UniProtKB/TrEMBL annotation:
It comes from Setaria italica. Belongs to the phosphatidylethanolamine-binding protein family. Pfam families: PBP. The lineage of its organism: Eukaryota, Viridiplantae, Streptophyta, Embryophyta, Tracheophyta. This is Uncharacterized protein. PROSITE patterns: PBP. It comes from the Eukaryota.
């Protein structure tokens, strides 16, 4: 059985195909680094996180695209809006934060109303700097189709956290 948290959390399969991580993604909310699979409350993720990506393998000059989606929208039992796009940033320089990239779709804070949602960060290494356009809507975004459309190839890093409404209780169960 795989110990990869992206496999255990069904991120691989639901959003992306399996990929070997070749970059390091760090996500921090309020100065606290997020660990893959951690439980965070909406109040903890209300503002845009600090994100840094290292390990580009191009003498520190790599550029990255970051996608943040909710594959469990509007509820894990009926994810009819899968994947809901929460954030899209391109042209992030290696070692610099997402705030140094091009924010194509502004950060929308997670506010789940039913069940425990996964909020997933997927990183792609860009081959070239290119124009990437905001989709017309956030609901039913498809990370695989997006990557194919812009020839981004396989992801190079990923992470996710679980989140439920402020008063919710309980943990996520995996198959």
């Amino acid at each position: 059985m795989s110990r990869d948290p992206l496999v255990v959390g069904n991120v691989v399969g639901d959003i992306v195909d399996y990929f070997p991580a070749s970059a390091l993604l760090r996500v921090s909310y309020g100065g606290r680094e997020m660990t893959c699979g951690s439980e965070l409350r909406p109040s903890q993720v209300a503002t845009e996180p600090a994100v840094s990506i290292t390990g580009g393998g191009h003498d520190g000059r790599a550029l990255f695209t970051l996608v943040m989606v909710d594959p469990d929208s509007p509820s894990p039992s009926n994810p009819s809006k899968r994947e809901y796009l929460h954030w899209l940033v391109t042209d992030i320089p290696e070692g610099a934060g997402a705030n140094h990239g091009n924010e194509v779709v502004a950060y929308e804070s997670p506010r789940p109303t039913a069940g425990i949602h996964r909020f997933v960060f997927i990183v792609f290494r860009q081959v070239v700097r290119q124009a990437i356009y905001a989709p017309g809507w956030r609901a039913n975004f498809n990370t695989r189709d997006f990557a194919a459309c812009y020839s981004l190839g396989a992801p190079v890093a990923g992470a996710y956290f679980n989140c439920q409404r402020e008063g919710g209780c309980g943990g996520r169960r995996y198959r």
